[in-house]
Specification:
Layout lengths: L2 H22 L3 H24 L6 H10 L1
């Protein structure tokens, strides 16, 4: 695993941890944002692992994941 992928997966874990805390506080909409970001960073990690490239925009991430 490359350092870049490891960093992205750290972001995933952090976003999910925040989402759990926020959800427990009863703020579902804000928890959803963090959960979405976790998915976005996870998709970036998958694209990076398969292509070696970093996708930074949502449309690139969505398109890239459909191809893998």
């Amino acid at each position: 695993m490359t350092p870049e992928i490891s960093e992205l997966l750290d972001k995933v874990r952090n976003c999910l941890a925040r989402a759990r805390i926020i959800l427990a506080a009863g703020v579902g909409e804000d928890a959803g944002r963090d959960a979405y970001l976790a998915g976005f960073h996870a998709a970036q990690a998958v694209i990076r692992a398969h292509t070696g490239k970093t996708a930074k925009r949502r449309i690139v991430v969505c398109t890239g994941c459909c191809r893998t």
